[in-house]
């Protein structure tokens, strides 16, 4: 276990935990980016409109794994969701996340 794992926990383990509880994957890239490739079964809700979708996301009553191209926008999205009382984790870039699933 490395220093980052000690400080932040093991992201792969957290992702597996979320998956075991039927988490939904929200890809916060633009519609154009999402159409170029995405994780099968993920939902595309661009970061720019995620605030307007909070009620819909809450109704799903599931934990959320966010992803984007590099992990920056998904980090912002996870923070927004957490602030609204939604259990969320930043899954990072969608390509690297797909390898952890």
Please, could you describe this protein's structure?
With about 100 residues, this protein is an alpha/beta fold. It has one domain: Rhodanese-like domain (Oxidized Rhodanese, domain 1). Helix content is about 45%, strand content about 15%. The chain has a four-stranded parallel β-sheet with strand order 2-1-3-4, with helices on both faces. The radius of gyration is 13 Å and the shape is globular.
Q: Short description, anyone?
A:
The protein has 101 residues and is of the alpha/beta class. The chain has helices at 3-8, 11-20, 31-35, 54-60, 72-83, 94-100; strands spanning 24-27, 43-44, 64-68, 88-93.
Task: Spell out the key features of this protein.
6 helices, globular, single chain, 101 residues, disordered N terminus, four-stranded parallel sheet, Oxidized Rhodanese, domain 1, alpha/beta, 4 strands
Strands, helices and their partners?
Layout: H1 3-8, H2 11-20, E1 24-27, H3 31-35, E2 43-44, H4 54-60, E3 64-68, H5 72-83, E4 88-93, H6 94-100
Parallel strand pairs: 1-2, 1-3, 3-4
